[in-house]
Amino acid sequence: MNTSTAAPVAITGVGAISRPAIGARELAQAADLWRAEPTDNERPWAIAELDNFAPAEFLGKRGWRFLPEATRAALAAVQLTLAHANEAAAGATEHAPERVGVALGTNFAVDAVVDRIDRALLAEGIAGISPVECPNFSVNVPAGRLGIAHGLRAFNITLVNLLTAGLESALVGARAMAADRADAVLVGAVEGRPPAAARTVTGPGVDAAGACLLHLERPERAAERGATVHALLTGGSRRTVPGNPAAAQRVLAAALDALGTPPGVLHLSLPATGGAHVAQAAEDWAKTRGAATALTVTTGAPQASATPVLGLAQHLVRGVRESAVVGAVGPRGNLTLLRVEPPRSRA
Amino acid sequence: MTTDVVITGLGVVSPLGNDPGEYWERLLRGEVPVRPLVAPGTAVDGTHTYPVTDAPRPAPHPGDEPGRPSGFALAAAGDALRDAGLADAGPTVLDGVGMVVGTGNGDSDLREAERDGRRELTGLQWYPYDTQGLLAERLALHGPGLTVSTACAAGAYAVAMGAEMIRAGEAEVVLVGGTEAVSRPAVGAFLRLGAAEPGPCRPFDTDRAGTVYGEGAAFLVLESAAHARGRGASPYARVLDSGWSCDAFHETAPDPEGTQALRAVREALHRSGLGQGDIGAVLCHGTGTPANDAVESRTTAALLGPRTPEVPVTAIKASLGHSGGAAGAFSCLTAALVLRDGTVPPVGTLRTLDPACELRVVREAPQASAGSAVLVNAYAFGGNNISVAIAALTPDATDPAATTTNETHGWTARRGRPVSSREGAA
Fold first, then answer.
1. Which of A275, B103, B215, B271 is most buried, by the most CB atoms less than 10 A from its CB?
2. Does 3.90.980.10 match the CATH number of domain B5-393?
3. The whole model's pTM is what?
4. How near does any CA of chain A get to the CA of B13, in Å?
């Protein structure tokens, strides 16, 4: 997506099922997710359960117990997202399901499932594998379940780059709308339990599961529906930042420059280790452009690819008052930046 | 004005060989290199698969040894860049080269080896979907990078999304492809679901009983026609547009009505500005499962209409097995070779065509394609559907001189005349 060629997309709904918050209201009031705290890499590895989420409240009494935690969270998050997108809409005229797409990022949605299947196979042979669990070995099944639950047929895409996949999904969704593949797209990230080795990326403390989704639609359609626009997604930029500091500076600067004038706010989500050169490159970029950009950087990702999406969602529900660029960088240097602008006046 | 996207480089690691020339020759012969899987002491030992038997070994890289799929991808992607004449391009070009990798299970083999005690993991080996980042690092590509995992449709989505990156002005050159290796938990799950054939993969055969795992990597260099023309590259074919849809029906089974699969392929045709008469061949998803092939037979016949008896249709999984997230990329790469040579490879395992299948399925010997465009279908768990339209070069897609030198890539080509679709038996 390129700011000069893509039409802006309205972000009209936010849905979070996560340890920091369930739903948009809680997310707005939760502790600041962009507050920079040094990662204590000496802390022991710890997975915090998603014990503030009661699936039955969203999914009813039956039919969800054999689903992985991540899928349960995603199914509940989509309900919240659609409800939020329709909250202010008079008559809540929804989009035709054939024109609504799904693009989700994930890193660990099925990691624990694959682990269980393989260990069962090793211990007990084929008969040891739970037939109910079988389909869940495929990492795109959580997104597929969302499509099935709501009859969303425009497309259904799963992206998996470490840390950046959630933000990437917003670009894929926006571009698909620009290409007239859909009128609305549910984007974001869904996560499951990561392996302990992930601590170099996530940091030592992680959440067992979570999902955060955004509802994208055309601004004119949002206006027709009377939906509240939380922000306009006006552009995005993707690059692969090299490890060499000088080269990183060059590539990051090109990615930021591609998004137009320096934003009022720039937030980067970096892995727990190995991202210092990117943070430095961002600081240098702001200085050389003479920009009054407020830069914040967080290291570590307790919700893996959902971490930067949750941070963006919190920024949206607290009210977007100036241009912001929100980005994530993976451990191999994958960089995704999104530019959001305040919603335009309806007048 | 729409940007023309051309294919300027190809690379494969496959059960049919590790260069596109050998791959193509053996595919045209309808070879079926299926073998029992060697996985001693496990329940999947002896399961029939299509293995890569002589995988190229990636250059040593201390502390960062890739899994088999990433190793396949490194070799195939490097070959594709060399084939395109871009391997030695400097940072001014490589800085902007994008990449989209499709895979289903990623480097699952590394975690499998950790679980059964064969190895300890270091670096990022614990993350199975690291292939794109690893390739970007090793090949010094700094453009946009994506890893798409729409299961068995991922490779085709990678091609479509790479073409979109070029059309959107995000990159002039994008390396796209898919990679997969036989994965123990995935094979186990297929066996548990009763979806595996105990022998070769038999798309469209009346006796087909399931699919058969395969592995390998297929990569293509996509480039804007203007960029290719500017550096004197000789393209194979053009990537037109693609149609996407989702059944939203069942997590593993296709919708028997095939409504969304048909919508995807019609959309690919429409968005590409093609008509029914332009279709020269269809490279089906053709998994050999009773459900997939039945639905795909009907939707393809509905698409082709009165041209159903004359348009050659093939399914390369007969010779490659089902390479999951790589499968769609193999089909797109094969489509480029079909268009270059005007030849459609046979379904090497087809003995008795399913009587419910009205398609002109190519069997025994290659057949001539019947038009200027090839449609590639890919379907997947989650009800994901995609069809990609790939077309022959037009004089304005590249330099007129280059269009007459389309054998400069060095892969063996045009050996043996295909049987004309009008003279061959369907």
1. B103
2. no
3. 0.95
4. 23
